[in-house]
């Protein structure tokens, strides 16, 4: 009794019926079962294998385990029943049969009891002990959990990029607003100065013509006064006695015969209103050409390589030692040091000049719209002229490496695209020298692009002369 009390109830419980052993038998693998439970299991399976470890048994119904039977009989039955009932209350039992869930059906993916396993529903299913199944299923769940964590990392990475994008949008908007105000302030200043100049011209003309008119009035007043004196004297002579009148007649008639010409109004005395107001907005706009520049290609900062620094007018770019704090948006190149133009061409003729200066490594040309911008591989087609290690080369999908021979170093390069005719030409505008021409039947939208590895000398797209033709 005392020795038996050191055992736990589970040591005296059959793995099949989950009850105290009845006529226990021992298989060669070391597992014990009720003789009846093992017999029913083998009859249903039609094979002699251990219900726990699945090992084949060569012995019919195993060897009787008298020691285990003695332990079961020696253990106080009331204690056995009490502990077994307590364990069953604390365990999750089968909802159909009230038995302990000891097996796991691998086809239905659910724990079952021995009665379920013996039923028609699970009779031909592959069932294994719960502890074995738990290990296998845990490994499967761990694999799924790993995938979930990897997916979580992806979402967190994208969220981080979105957070950076949100902050960058604010920075972009504030910076752009400041530049817009600065540009409009230049225009406002020009308009204010132009307004002041035109009002000053109007006032100068007003003063000039007012002085001229005042001088004319002053002269007329002087002559009117002279005529008035002559008229008054003549009237006095007419009122004199006849003899006195006749004595002064000769002098009177000479005085009365005035030789002054009739006064004439001066032509152009009024303010030339038409000169000051005629086509005023147009004339101001025409004059604005000296402060307004037009650049045929504008760079798109949202496509720029993270190490690139774009100038405020979006026409110049240089490299930097440290990458900028920019979001990794889909349009941006993350491996190749490229920057696209803001607009592409799908027809027509276009021309732009690029100042390359003393940059040690640069590339100028056009590239198709749909290009892989992340990673080392570029999927889009490129047509370009580039300079590196003291040599000039031309590159295209059909002509990957053409060495160009130049008499002198380029300071500027002109790009001329005739999309409809399928021609892309490069030349030196300083000495009007042709460099190379690509011919290709273009079908995609083409974007001008720049590449500049120099962190000192920027590449700059030059403005063109603007003329107004009537």
From TrEMBL:
Residue intervals passing through the bilayer: none
GO cellular component annotations of the record: cytoplasm
Family annotation (InterPro entries): B30.2/SPRY, B30.2/SPRY_sf, Butyrophylin_SPRY, ConA-like_dom_sf, PRY, SPRY_dom, TRIM/RBCC, Znf_B-box
GO MF annotation, one: zinc ion binding
Domain B box-type: 89-130
Subcellular compartments: Cytoplasm
Coiled coil spans: 191-237
Keywords assigned by UniProt, alphabetized: Coiled coil, Cytoplasm, Metal-binding, Zinc, Zinc-finger
B30.2/SPRY domain span: 277-468
SUPFAM superfamilies: B-box zinc-binding domain, Concanavalin A-like lectins/glucanases, RING/U-box
A Pfam family of this chain: PRY
Main localisation: cytoplasm
Domain RING-type residue range list: 14-54
Family statement drawn from the similarity comment of this UniProt entry: Belongs to the TRIM/RBCC family.
PANTHER family registered for this protein in UniProt: E3 UBIQUITIN-PROTEIN LIGASE TRIM
Protein name: Uncharacterized protein
